[in-house]
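Translate sequence into structure tokens.
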Amino acid sequence: MSLDSAAKYLEIVAHYESCLERHGDTHLGVDWPNAQDVERRYDVMLGVIPPDAPEPITLLDFGCGAAHLYEHIRKRQLHHRIVYSGLDLSPKFVALCRDKFSTVPFYCFDLLSAEEHLPQFDY
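Result follows.
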């Protein structure tokens, strides 16, 4: 990967961290303009999991931000069938997630350059 490519996606991390700093742990803090659309977005994302899928299902929230998808899973009472993990490039977001959900695995590294490996996930 070229330095220009790395710089571009690191700029994205800086953008989201500035949103978090300005707006806190809210939909605006992850730069999502409309709170009502978030619920719909998460329902659509989870809709790819068939209702008759064998349980438990493992899910990696790639670019998990503030783990709002996990909050949605809990709100919908799906946490008994979905084993959630989060991954984000931002140490600030991962620290927030770990503070909120200390028993949930959160990973903080760059998959494109890290020597670390993730476990396998269903989704």
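Note: The first helix runs from residue 3 to 23.
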